[in-house]
Design goal:
alpha+beta, two-stranded antiparallel sheet, 6 helices, 17% helix, 16% strand, globular, binds fe (ii) ion
């Protein structure tokens, strides 16, 4: 008997609440977002990198025009929030709402978070659960390593990472839109592969200059995604040219939530129906819109 071809072999996933395996080829996750834009699936390389590193960078995903408009909104939100109508006073307000289900976000979450039983062409199989704006001046950003060991954490902790051959689930997942360039220092730092680490964090990792930490640089408009179960930390913002202007948003399974954040009800009401499914109640039973 010949060995299965790894490029076409399918993972074996148990069906939810029933006996048997999921028919992978019949799973029909959303192919467009709420703005009818085609979903962008992660490439095999991106999928592999995220699964092995615990984080992934997509440099320059947004166009210059998009970055300019979104960054202007962030500065206004930061500096003069009262100039915005109350429902828009958040990092999903104005032009930023489009980021919540950006085509790459949908493609990525389809791969690493979506529950096929709670997903259709009109309903996302995952949720968005929080968002915040990080506007950091030179020197701001505290070093504080946290999380790690996700593969060995029990469900309920919120920071677990699970995988079988051919499929991975990242649990609480952080999305960072970098709207200003990230130069040599000041972005989020990671310990590669620590979401699967079997050992506790070594004492040396408490030093910002330890070689255990991996840094990235990127142009404005880049997207960073990481499993919260990966050991990570903020670091002091080094640039004297501009602030860090980053939107941190978290995504999760339909039936799990870590953060207390909720979107403003009027902002939610004004969204297209498919986008609203990102913010539906946190449960499984009957939760397919
Ligand atoms: Fe964190």
């Amino acid at each position: 008997m010949s060995a299965p071809d790894p490029s076409t072999a399918k993972p074996l996933l148990f069906q939810q609440s029933r006996v048997g395996y999921v028919e992978i080829d019949e799973v029909d996750l959303p192919r467009t977002n709420a703005a009818s834009k085609p979903v962008i699936d992660p490439t095999p390389e991106q999928r592999y990198l995220f699964d092995t590193q615990g984080w992934l960078l997509i440099p320059g995903l947004l166009s210059e025009d998009e970055v300019e408009e979104m960054r202007a909104f962030c500065y206004r939100l930061h500096q003069e929030p009262e100039s915005l109508p109350e429902p828009q006073r958040s990092p999903i307000g104005g032009p930023l709402e489009e980021l919540t289900d950006h085509p790459f976000i949908v493609g990525f979450m389809n791969e690493f978070l979506a529950n096929p039983d709670l997903s259709s062409q009109d309903c996302y199989g995952f949720r968005m659960e929080s968002t915040s704006l990080a506007m950091r001046q030179t020197g701001e950003g505290g070093f504080g390593p946290h999380n790690g060991n996700g593969l060995w954490r029990l469900p309920g902790d919120g920071h677990n990472y699970r995988c079988v051959p051919g499929k991975a689930r990242s649990s609480l997942t952080c999305v960072v839109w970098e709207l200003n360039e990230v130069e040599a220092s000041g972005g989020t730092l990671f310990i590669n592969g620590s979401h699967k680490a079997a050992f506790p964090l070594p004492a040396g990792a408490q030093n910002l200059d330890s070689d255990l930490w991996t840094r990235y640089t990127c142009p404005a408009g880049s997207l960073l995604i990481f499993a919260e179960s990966t050991t990570h930390t903020a670091s002091p913002w080094g640039s004297t040219n501009h602030e860090r202007c980053a939107i941190f948003s978290r995504y999760n399974y339909v039936d799990s939530k870590w953060h207390k954040w909720q979107p403003h009800p009027e902002a939610l009401e004004a969204m297209p129906p498919k986008r609203r499914t990102l913010f539906r109640p946190v449960h499984v039973e009957g939760n397919l819109i």
